Inverse folding.
């Protein structure tokens, strides 16, 4: 059997991320880990999180896929002049720059800019925020993939939708064909990993969680 693991919004919480990865690697010997975005802002060590993700898995048998979140988009846009810099700083960007001891280097901005917005496999859709079920999957807007906040479940082209972006202490939570894995680690909750069997359709088999 093969497995896919989806990890929710990290927001600079490096130590919970390290713990969660260690917990997963202690139980499974291989798999694909999909990180659903928002690696930076608000938490204490955004730079450390990006360094860890850029380095990739340390053990053989693992593949990491990093998706772009709205906070990565805000950071890149603020440096490029597309967004108001104060908007990003007020939404956690200040903590990110503090973790770098100043400005975010061009190398890390370029890394964040290149991150994909969606990952698909046979049974699942992974995005940061959500998808619009009324729009064909190949025509989804970046705005929706990065910012949408689904309130209900829908028919997602025969697949299960896994996302973060909307934090809550009651997450992780599966509603119909949708699972929200943002359990608000940076707000005092846990960092969550959803475990999926690649050969079986539907929601997660279980959740693995780590905190401070």
């Amino acid at each position: 059997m093969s497995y896919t693991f989806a990890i929710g919004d990290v927001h600079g919480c490096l130590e919970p991320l390290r713990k969660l990865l260690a917990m997963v690697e202690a139980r499974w010997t291989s798999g694909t880990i999909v990180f659903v975005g928002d690696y930076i802002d608000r938490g204490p060590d955004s730079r450390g999180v990006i360094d860890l993700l850029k380095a990739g898995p340390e053990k053989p048998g693992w593949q990491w896929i990093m998706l772009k979140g709205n906070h990565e988009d805000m950071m890149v846009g603020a440096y490029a002049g597309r967004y108001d810099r104060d908007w990003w700083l007020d939404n956690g960007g200040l903590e990110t720059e503090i973790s770098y001891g100043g400005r975010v280097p061009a190398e890390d901005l370029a890394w964040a800019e290149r991150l994909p917005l969606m990952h698909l496999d046979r049974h699942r859709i992974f995005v940061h925020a959500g998808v619009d079920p009324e729009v064909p999957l190949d025509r989804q807007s970046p705005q929706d993939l990065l910012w949408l906040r689904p309130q209900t479940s829908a028919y997602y082209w025969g697949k299960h939708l896994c996302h973060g972006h909307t934090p809550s202490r009651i997450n992780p939570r599966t509603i119909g064909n949708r699972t929200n894995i943002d359990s608000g680690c940076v707000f005092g909750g846990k960092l969550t990993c959803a475990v999926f069997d690649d050969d079986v359709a539907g929601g997660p088999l279980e959740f693995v969680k780590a905190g401070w």
The chain has six helices and ten strands. The helical segments are 14-27, 46-55, 70-80, 85-100, 106-114, 142-147. The radius of gyration is 16 Å.
